[in-house]
Amino acid sequence: MDEALKRTDRVIVHVDLDAFYCQVEHVRLGIPTDVPLCVQQWQGLIAVNYAARAAGIKRHCNVTEARKLCPEARFVHVATFADGDTTPQYHSEGISYQTHKVSLDPYRKASMKIMAIFERSCPKYQRASIDEAYLDLTDEVNMRIKTRLASSSSTDMDDDAEPDVNWDGAGILVGDQVSHSTGWRDLQLRVAAEISQEIRATVYKELQYTCSAGIAHNKTLAKLCSGLNKPNKQTVLRQAAVSPFMEKLPLGEIRNLGGKRGTEVEEALGVTTAGELWKYSVETLQAKFGASTGSWLYDICRGICHEPVTETAIAKSMMAAKTLRPHIKTVAELSHWLEILSNELYNRLIDDNALNNRWPRVITFHVKHPLDASSHSRRTDLPPFHDFVATSIRDRCLALWTSGGDGSASRWPIERIAVGVGGFEKLDAGVVSVKNFFKKVEPTDEPGVVKTPTPTPAPGAESSPPSRRKPPAKATNSLQNFFNAAPAPAPSNTGATTTNPSPQKHRPPSSSSSGGPLDAFFQTTTTTTSATPSSPTPQKSEQPASAPGPNPASSDSPFQCATCPPGSAAFTDARELAEHNDWHMAMALHNEERGGGGAAAAPPSSSSSLSSSTAARGGKTKTGPARGKRKRATTAGDARSRKAQPPLAFGRRE
Ligand code: DCP
Ligand code: CA
Ligand code: CA
């Protein structure tokens, strides 16, 4: 039996949407995917579809360069709020940084629908960014194998028997394109590949989005594989191929070694590939980089990663911000921009309430003056759910501004404003939230038609139940033990991994914690900055306030953090900047709650912090934002009625 136990492993799938923002726009506009399409923000491109990439367009081209490369390409500007918009709109003319505010809401909403599919397909899923997730399919895979073996005659195997694995239709294999192999771990990967195909097909069927996947025995390897054969393909890394694959892999392609940390290792040891690290003992690596980083490096360069798939915690704050160029100098201008931010937060809060049945207590209003190094923040209460209207946040912030009080208020000009809400609390049972309102309806394939939900079984559960036929005694024992017991650790020099030694609870707790909601958020923020709280990850969880990561921004990026010292925190895009700002907001709230001053400390790196957007969890399908300007709801209660229309089918073309 010991031998059999060593032959199982975890099975992890990493799924990443192809040219994500572009696909959202293709579906919304009904444009075929073979039409070159780019999503732009101001004059820069933030997403480029595969047809446009074939024409030579890259993400960091500007619109003018891209048009030259591919005159027939379609350019879609991200949705924005302009003066008077209560919901983000796809404006096509006169869009300007001076007058508009970007909204990523359409992508957040699409992300929520995708994550909902992942969640119902695999309870152990972890959202890794707006368009990617890890799925730990071990249980589903083992269940399928067990079920099939139980109902087939092949159960007559002894401990030493190795199953034959046919790779036809599994996707692309890393390394040798073998058509057959043997072994339990390969069988697990083969079944995971089958489930991955099903999940990807479901995403396509329901939402018309394609995605790519990597299938391997751990998160690092799965993530490396998902990007190898894009778009719309999946790649399997069999255990036998791990060493040759890692040997040639540039160090910088490994998660957490793409930025400064990778450069540090490369320079200290004069290496460029993972294989070149193999000659160093764990003691040498620990002596150079510290105990935990050293042992993590020793493992990771061999493709060993024990990091568990854990659910991304629900966001504990939300923020909307605008850098004002030119700086503003009047209350009328301030009121104008606050109204736009207020509308944005209003929509996000109503959606969040529908998903999570919670409501924030506190608004924090940050103001940055051009000559001040950091922003000043003041806080006030948010009106309760039923009294909340789209302009509530504007009005409260204006009241804070005019009341002055901290020496910074009422000073002009203003360079940047940010409004955050936090301190979420669950709504009372007596308060009817939009979530409850929606509980009885689920989308059908037909727009506007609703049906009573039926629980969706996990893929493993969809297989036919185990046959009642009693298998031969020896095989039964062997197989049951094989699947029920925890796998034994694999030798660390083989590249094999084991299951998480301390099983995790994957559906964690509500938004509040015993230390208060902000404490919970604070912990979440700091832990998610490191790659894995419980794995031997390098300890430097709080990076300097520059923007390390796969796409470090230059100091002339328009996406600068206004709270960090000038030039020290530049981001490649608004999304990363927004996440960074959420971190500041959380810190400010956290410090205020402890009676501190809300001073800026070093924020997490943009590359390693997990998204704190409210799209962190998949959820109910809701009516999408109405097109065009619409009358705003008078209160959140009215908004609830407004939202309580029959939900639309997934993938509806708005
Ligand atoms: N994004 C952005 N700015 C960046 C990187 C990404 O705004 N610097 C947005 C646009 C992308 C989305 O996030 O569509 C997902 O990012 P990915 O890196 O996964 O890139 P894509 O999904 O666009 O392409 P790929 O098919 O290569 O994954
Ligand atoms: Ca992607
Ligand atoms: Ca991605």
Automatic annotation (TrEMBL):
Primary subcellular site in the record, as a coarse category: nucleus
One Gene Ontology molecular-function label: damaged DNA binding
Compositionally biased tracts (Basic and acidic residues): 573-583
Ranges where the UmuC domain occurs: 12-258
One Pfam match: IMS_C
GO biological process, one term: error-free translesion synthesis
Superkingdom field: Eukaryota
Gene3D superfamilies referenced in this protein's UniProt entry, alphabetically: 3.30.70.270, 3.40.1170.60, 5' to 3' exonuclease, C-terminal subdomain (1.10.150.20), DNA polymerase, Y-family, little finger domain (3.30.1490.100)
Compartments, as annotated in UniProt: Nucleus
Annotated InterPro entries: DNA/RNA_pol_sf, DNA_pol_Y-fam_lit_finger_sf, DNA_pol_Y-fam_little_finger, DNA_polymerase_eta, Rev_trsase/Diguanyl_cyclase, UmuC
PANTHER family: DNA POLYMERASE ETA
UniProt keyword annotations, A-Z: DNA damage, DNA repair, DNA-directed DNA polymerase, Metal-binding, Nucleotidyltransferase, Nucleus, Transferase, Zinc, Zinc-finger
Membrane-spanning parts: none
GO cellular component, one term: replication fork
Key word DNA damage present: yes
Protein name: DNA polymerase eta
Annotated region (Disordered), positions in chain: 444-654
Signal peptide region: none
Biased composition range(s): Low complexity: 481-517, 524-558, 600-618
